[in-house]
């Protein structure tokens, strides 16, 4: 599932390529991917233009010139491709927004969605999300984590605790902080809490710089998207050597989660 760095990579690209271009055609091939009757959705979007592209947690928010919003959540398996009819991937598209000859294709939205919302509906939809990790202060983080007792991995992926972090980057953050992902939050010292906090922004920022780990290109000739795949610290590196201590990276599983970590230098 795309996490904060992937969605931020998408946001940056779309912000530079979609703004103020009229939407000339709307194709809906899966009605469950939207929240309105097909014709109602088309009438609200066709001929309008996007005035901003923002991100909240793992969502993208497209603000329309009408003041309404399109809220995107790709969920598991969701992708986007921006191109034209000639270079469009041979994949099933649930939704296609056209901007003249250019098309924004939404692919794999079996669980994901693109919802048309008014401002108050958007606010309600996002109200339970935790703070953005890139804007989080240490004081706020310390106050949040001191009330928790569970393991670090499920805590970091809890969108009500901190938003935008999932399986990949929770592992990467724990590695950066030299903490076992199954350590209990309530057992951490103040120093360890600070190390954990100080690992969040660098890991996410580095992942954004590499284009995240999603390996499906956003557009023809895209060489950035998915660049983090070959630069992960521990995620999906089972059996390889830790680049910090040289020990073998292990995959561990509990009843509900899996995690990649270095048992030698993550205590």
From TrEMBL:
<dbReference type="GO" id="GO:0003684">
    <property type="term" value="F:damaged DNA binding"/>
</dbReference>
<keyword id="KW-0326">Glycosidase</keyword>
<dbReference type="InterPro" id="IPR035937">
    <property type="entry name" value="FPG_N"/>
</dbReference>
<protein>
    <submittedName>
        <fullName>Formamidopyrimidine-DNA glycosylase</fullName>
    </submittedName>
</protein>
<keyword id="KW-0234">DNA repair</keyword>
<keyword id="KW-0863">Zinc-finger</keyword>
<dbReference type="GO" id="GO:0006284">
    <property type="term" value="P:base-excision repair"/>
</dbReference>
<dbReference type="GO" id="GO:0140078">
    <property type="term" value="F:class I DNA-(apurinic or apyrimidinic site) endonuclease activity"/>
</dbReference>
<keyword id="KW-0227">DNA damage</keyword>
<dbReference type="GO" id="GO:0034039">
    <property type="term" value="F:8-oxo-7,8-dihydroguanine DNA N-glycosylase activity"/>
</dbReference>
<dbReference type="InterPro" id="IPR012319">
    <property type="entry name" value="FPG_cat"/>
</dbReference>
<comment type="similarity">
    <text>Belongs to the FPG family.</text>
</comment>
<feature type="domain" description="Formamidopyrimidine-DNA glycosylase catalytic">
    <location>
        <begin position="2"/>
        <end position="100"/>
    </location>
</feature>
<keyword id="KW-0378">Hydrolase</keyword>
<dbReference type="InterPro" id="IPR000214">
    <property type="entry name" value="Znf_DNA_glyclase/AP_lyase"/>
</dbReference>
<dbReference type="InterPro" id="IPR015886">
    <property type="entry name" value="H2TH_FPG"/>
</dbReference>
<dbReference type="InterPro" id="IPR010979">
    <property type="entry name" value="Ribosomal_uS13-like_H2TH"/>
</dbReference>
<dbReference type="Pfam" id="PF01149">
    <property type="entry name" value="Fapy_DNA_glyco"/>
</dbReference>
<dbReference type="Pfam" id="PF06831">
    <property type="entry name" value="H2TH"/>
</dbReference>
<keyword id="KW-0862">Zinc</keyword>
<dbReference type="GO" id="GO:0008270">
    <property type="term" value="F:zinc ion binding"/>
</dbReference>
<comment type="subunit">
    <text>Monomer.</text>
</comment>
<keyword id="KW-0456">Lyase</keyword>
<keyword id="KW-0479">Metal-binding</keyword>
<keyword id="KW-0511">Multifunctional enzyme</keyword>
<dbReference type="InterPro" id="IPR020629">
    <property type="entry name" value="FPG_Glyclase"/>
</dbReference>
<feature type="domain" description="FPG-type">
    <location>
        <begin position="233"/>
        <end position="267"/>
    </location>
</feature>
<keyword id="KW-0238">DNA-binding</keyword>
């Amino acid at each position: 599932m795309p996490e904060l760095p992937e969605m931020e990579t998408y946001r940056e690209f779309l912000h530079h390529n979609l703004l103020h271009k009229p939407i000339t055609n709307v194709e809906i091939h899966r009605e469950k991917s939207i929240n309105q009757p097909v014709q109602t959705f088309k009438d609200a979007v066709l001929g309008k233009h996007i005035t901003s592209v923002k991100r909240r947690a793992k969502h993208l928010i497209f603000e329309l010139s009408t003041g309404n919003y399109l809220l995107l959540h790709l969920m598991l398996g969701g992708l986007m491709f921006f191109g034209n009819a000639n270079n469009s991937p041979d994949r099933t598209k649930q939704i296609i927004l056209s901007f003249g000859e250019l098309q924004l294709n939404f692919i794999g939205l079996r669980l994901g969605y693109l919802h048309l919302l008014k401002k108050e509906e958007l606010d309600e939809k996002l109200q339970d999300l935790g703070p953005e990790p890139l804007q989080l202060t240490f004081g706020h983080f310390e106050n949040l984590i001191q009330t928790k007792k569970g393991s670090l991995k499920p805590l970091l992926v809890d969108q009500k605790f901190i938003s935008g972090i999932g399986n990949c980057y929770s592992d990467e953050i724990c590695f950066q902080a030299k903490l076992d992902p199954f350590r209990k939050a309530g057992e951490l010292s103040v120093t360890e809490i600070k190390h954990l906090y100080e690992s969040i922004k660098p890991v996410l920022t580095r992942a954004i710089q590499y284009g995240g780990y999603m390996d499906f290109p956003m557009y023809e000739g895209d060489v950035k998207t998915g660049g983090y795949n070959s630069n992960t610290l521990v995620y999906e590196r089972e059996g390889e050597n830790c680049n910090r201590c040289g020990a073998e990276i292990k995959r561990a599983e509990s009843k509900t989660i899996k995690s990649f970590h270095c048992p030698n230098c993550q205590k």
